[in-house]
């Protein structure tokens, strides 16, 4: 029997458009002999819209932005609908959501409560992976080398802005990067070379989050690796990002399409082993499930620093994660099929947990 797969996309997030691009690419790649595909669209206002089964790939994101009466997420759950409607429910949900209200553990928690299998990381890993401060604190505890960093919440900054800027200058210096703590896709990120740019970067980053992180600049190649699995994760080949700008920003990721991607990256066997080891350690430190993409800096001296992990990396035509696995011998359709299998595996394991005394 075919698996009834719900593609959950959109979302109340600044990364709404990125999610649409991801959903479009995944929908085109799905093997229709194995899956019946159902679109589940979350509008920018947070409304849920469940569409009819998709007979084939859609051609553009406009077709995914359904307009209909909003539905409750509860219609997805076999356990919360009348028996006669159960055949219309979803077997597995693939949350193709990026940013807050989707990639941060919120949707994962809802799916856990409804006991629905879903692709990717659980509540803890999703939440910790989204919050760059918490993630880096966990990596520090795990002994993973990374750039020096500091962070602020908005109220702290508003009380004494000058003190905040001076702390950054004293602890990190210039250049440095200012980022919202809970966003991806390089939204709201700026590289700062002086106080004026630092002030402007704080202002912008705080538009997207109540907490921001500031990191020292590491001069090195940008290396990425894919991780796939549950309790026994494995790694892909490595790839290198070669941005034509100062850093790999939102426009380069999703609009230009001309950023250099070198797959596989030219690194030594020893460097690969180090990156592989750090990626697996990061995955396990977060209690990962399904997938992550781990991002590193590799200096000319051969030092490796972990930058971050992405618990739901993009699947757009320019996205690194599926490209890495394609070069490792796992095709686009096979990758999606494996992620669904891992989701079912993790869900079945959870059903063995005893909840009563």
UniProtKB/TrEMBL annotation:
Localization, UniProt: Cytoplasm
Keywords: ATP-binding, Cell shape, Cell wall biogenesis/degradation, Cytoplasm, Ligase, Magnesium, Manganese, Metal-binding, Nucleotide-binding, Peptidoglycan synthesis
E.C. numbers: 6.3.2.4
Gene Ontology molecular function terms on file: D-alanine-D-alanine ligase activity
Cross-referenced PROSITE patterns: ATP_GRASP (PS50975), DALA_DALA_LIGASE_1 (PS00843), DALA_DALA_LIGASE_2 (PS00844)
Necessary cofactors: Mg(2+); Mn(2+)
Catalytically driven reaction(s): 2 D-alanine + ATP = D-alanyl-D-alanine + ADP + phosphate + H(+)
PANTHER family: D-ALANINE--D-ALANINE LIGASE, D-ALANINE--D-ALANINE LIGASE A
NCBIfam families, alphabetized: D_ala_D_alaTIGR, PRK01372.1, PRK01966.1-2, PRK01966.1-4
Protein name: D-alanine--D-alanine ligase
Source organism of the structure: Ectobacillus antri
Encoding gene, per UniProt annotation: ddl
């Amino acid at each position: 029997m075919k698996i009834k797969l719900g593609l959950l996309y959109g979302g109340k997030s600044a990364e709404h458009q990125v999610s649409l691009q991801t959903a479009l690419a995944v929908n085109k790649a799905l093997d229709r002999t194995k899956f019946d595909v159902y679109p589940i669209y979350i509008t920018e206002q947070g409304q849920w819209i469940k569409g009819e089964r998709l007979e084939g790939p859609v051609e553009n994101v406009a077709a995914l932005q359904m307009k209909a009466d909003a539905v409750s997420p509860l219609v997805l759950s076999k356990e919360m609908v009348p028996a006669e409607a159960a055949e219309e429910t979803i077997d597995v949900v693939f949350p193709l959501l990026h940013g807050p209200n989707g990639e941060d553990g919120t949707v994962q928690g809802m799916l856990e409560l409804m006991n629905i299998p879903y692709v990717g990381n659980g509540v803890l890993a999703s939440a910790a992976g989204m919050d760059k401060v918490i993630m880096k604190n966990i990596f520090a505890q795990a002994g993973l080398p990374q750039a020096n960093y500091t962070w602020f919440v908005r109220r702290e900054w508003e009380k004494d802005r000058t003190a905040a800027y001076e702390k950054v200058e004293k602890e990190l210096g210039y250049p440095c990067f200012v980022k919202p703590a809970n966003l991806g896709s390089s939204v709201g990120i700026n590289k700062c070379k002086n106080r004026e740019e630092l002030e402007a970067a704080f202002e912008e980053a705080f538009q997207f989050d109540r907490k921001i992180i500031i990191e020292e600049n590491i001069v090195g190649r940008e290396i990425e690796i894919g991780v796939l699995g549950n309790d026994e994760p494995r790694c892909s080949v490595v790839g290198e990002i070669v941005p034509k700008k100062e850093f790999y920003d939102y426009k380069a990721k999703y609009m230009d399409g001309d950023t250099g991607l070198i797959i596989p990256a030219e690194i030594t066997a020893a460097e690969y082993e180090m990156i592989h080891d750090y990626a697996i350690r990061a995955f396990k430190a977060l209690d990962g499930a399904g997938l992550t993409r781990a991002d590193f800096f590799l200096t000319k001296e051969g030092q490796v620093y972990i930058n971050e992990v992405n618990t739901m990396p993009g699947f757009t035509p320019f996205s690194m994660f599926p490209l890495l696995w394609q070069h490792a011998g796992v095709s686009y359709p096979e990758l999606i099929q494996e992620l669904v299998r891992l989701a079912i595996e993790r869900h079945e394991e959870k059903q063995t947990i005893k909840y009563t005394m």
